Amino acid sequence: MLSSEDGRLLFEQAFYYSAVGVALVNTEGYVLMSNPALQQMLGYTKEDLEKNPFDVFSHPEDNKHDRENLESLIRGEIHFYQMEKRYIKKNGAILWTLLNVTMVKDEAGLPQYFIGQIQDITERKQYERSTMETQQYLAKIIETVPAGITLLDEEGNIVFANKMAEQILGIHKSALASMKYNDPGFSITSIDGNAIPEKELPFSRVMETEEPVEDVTHVLADEQGGRRIVSINAAPLTDEHGGINAVLCAITDLTSTVRTEEKLRRVNKKLKRLSERDGLTGVANRRLFDVQLQKYWETEEAFSLILFDLDYFKPYNDHFGHQAGDDALKMTAQTLENIMQSSGTLFRYGGEEFAVLMNGVEEEGAALAEQLRTELQQLCIPHHQGAAGPCLTASFGVSSSLDAGTIDELVDNTDQALYKAKAMGRNTVASSRMLKSGDSGAVSGGKA
């Protein structure tokens, strides 16, 4: 058993060499003794600490709570207490501490002094504060980002949803808390309305691959029975052992964007069509002809070009008027385009002149030209001023890409064939190859 002297020495050694601050404080609040650790912690000397009440070194906001605990010790209501308390260091800095206090009584049971153990927890408090601020920032970010944020546990249950998620999904978070990622209420489908296998849903893919997934597009049914198009990014969250314990999902509402894009596509398609169609007749215009002619040429496959003029169209306009002339152009274009179908493409080349591009050699082009000439003659738009007969007719020139070295040569060859058809009395089809062979006859022709 230790002697009283040995006990005293042991206490002094424990007091002076303790790694935590220790102070003996009398019932008046003055420091009786302080160890070097406490002196270093606060930046005060032994003398500085002993000549002032300990409250002087304490943060004013913590003194009341500390005194209440001391009074409870004195009354015997508690045997010790522990609290987080702030002190003011000599340099004015705040020191966060964990304070443990017990009371020593004399032989009569009266309070003699208090023993306070003071542990520096400033770094821990700074970390806690930093963590709390970070959590607050993250909470604000999650609630203000323009995307729905949901957190799913490892079973796929929705355990958190921000306000934007409520808005996008159209379901209050209290109801979402009882739902799973594949709840039938979401009516999840693909863009084209097909059901999506559960294994292809973002949550399932993340759980299966343990990798994030991005830009998965789904369609959800809203409360009004409409469709809401969403893009989902999902990523796994792991525990300290690397196992997935949650999946974080970010949901972006694409509905208005997709609808706007669809409208824009329709408008662009309409504008494109308008830019490629002749405003009067509705058939393809000269601009599109130039584009298509270049494409035909670049294929390096045989194709034919047909050019035709309505015969004696100026006298027709002079006699019947420009409105009747416009009507005749429209009737001619619509009738011949319907006949052609997939045989080729009809273009308004300019004024009363039209062009046709088609795959095939010159003989095939000449056959189509004859079909168009015959159909126009049978349509018989009255033309009492026409020298070629009582009906509106046309003269056709045909040429093949096989007989031309350039696009310009092809067009020139076809023009020459057209001029030949006109020179032969009009209402006739003439081909470029026949001209080059010295044949003065037309491919076909007739007079009403």
Automatic annotation (TrEMBL):
InterPro entries: Biofilm_reg_signaling (IPR052155), GGDEF_dom (IPR000160), Nucleotide_cyclase (IPR029787), PAC (IPR001610), PAS (IPR000014), PAS-assoc_C (IPR000700), PAS-like_dom_sf (IPR035965), PAS_4 (IPR013656). Residues 22-77, 134-176 form the PAS domain. SMART domains: GGDEF, PAC, PAS. SUPFAM superfamilies: Nucleotide cyclase, PYP-like sensor domain (PAS domain). Residues 301-434 form the GGDEF domain. Residues 81-133, 214-266 form the PAC domain. Coiled coil: none annotated. This is Sensor domain-containing diguanylate cyclase. It comes from Alkalicoccus urumqiensis. The lineage of its organism: Bacteria, Bacillati, Bacillota, Bacilli, Bacillales.
